Fold:
Amino acid sequence: MTEMQIDRRQDLWTRVRPRGGRGDRSPLSMWFFDIDRVLLLLALLMIAIGLLAVAAASPASAVRYSGDKLHYPPLYYFWRQVMWVAVSLPVMFVVSMLPVAAARRMALVGAGLFLVLLALAPFIGVEHNGARRWISVGIAEFQPSEFLKPCFIVAIAWLLSLRAKEPDLPVLPISAAATALVACLLMLQPDFGQTIIFTVIWMALLMIAGTPLRVLGGLVAAAPVGLGAAYLFYDTARIRIDAFLFRGDEGAAIDHYQTDMAYATLTSGGLTGTGPGGGIMKFRLPEAHTDYIFSVIGEEFGLIACGVIALLFLALVVRVFVKLLDEPDPFLLLAAAGLATQFGVQALVSMAVNTGIAPSKGMTLPFISYGGSSMIALSIGMGLLLAFTRRNPFLTRSPYIVRWSGQ
Structure:
């Protein structure tokens, strides 16, 4: 069904539906009844959990990052996160109200803009912990890669969906070149974790788009070769891998301190945790409010709470993929599936690092970790996901629509 046909059906339904109550067709009521309220509830629930988790981690981070002259109050990072959430929620709601064409256009423009900023970050960016991933805009700093992620997914989804109209269009080489460009720019920062995320999402989109198995098999076979090349020629990857695999070396042992301490903090609270504010191990944990917030949750709220959070991310991904089972539009299918994959993969990597299954990558837990760039970018991604999964539950039930469509 074309967008013009959908618009004509919606226009007809506007004229034949009764006014008042659920028949009200104001923009706000249309958004409320068309939106996937389960997805929205999951997002809001994770944001609420994130505020609680940042409040628990804030005292440890405030102590660690207070300088000689500046002493942060215990809830410094919590109140800043409240501010970022207050900014992010309206962004998510506004983006979710956009028509599909407008949301796609916004993402394509954003992909171009943030790709340029990503290329500039190593040269004009602000350095933190030996990496230049942030660009200062005076009152705040933002990370272009975080904003590029949802826009990149929509752009690749749009590109791959063109094959349905133009089978001879070389979408695979073009998407591969775009992904390789992003990966090279990320490694210049350096940001090995985000490089993996972008690559995995691209391969997932290829799989969903129906790429031949021989091509997918070749890409999977090339993955160990790429990892080996990164180990040999990319210092950041070699340091992370050595620190994860070889504990005997003194330098590797120092680099491995973060994941060891994260695991110790995660398991110190047992099943039910020490209770809010009762954690002690978190004060020895670097980046307690960002990369290792999952460990703080484990210490103060217990492993059961960690399991609930993992189930929430699983529910989000499953919900999206179940809704897409009958989606006829290839672009909506790819874009929504790609955005859901982003949330799932990023959460999986973050939790794997905190549990010691994967080497440290500097990966935040979506909606839960502290961060302005992360929260706003994730809200844009969730807004796009809500926009691409919107459904009108009454659209196909009206006899007027059935007669008009000739069925």
The two ends are 14 Å apart (CA to CA). The chain is about 70% helix and 5% strand. The beta strands are 126-128, 131-136, 141-142.
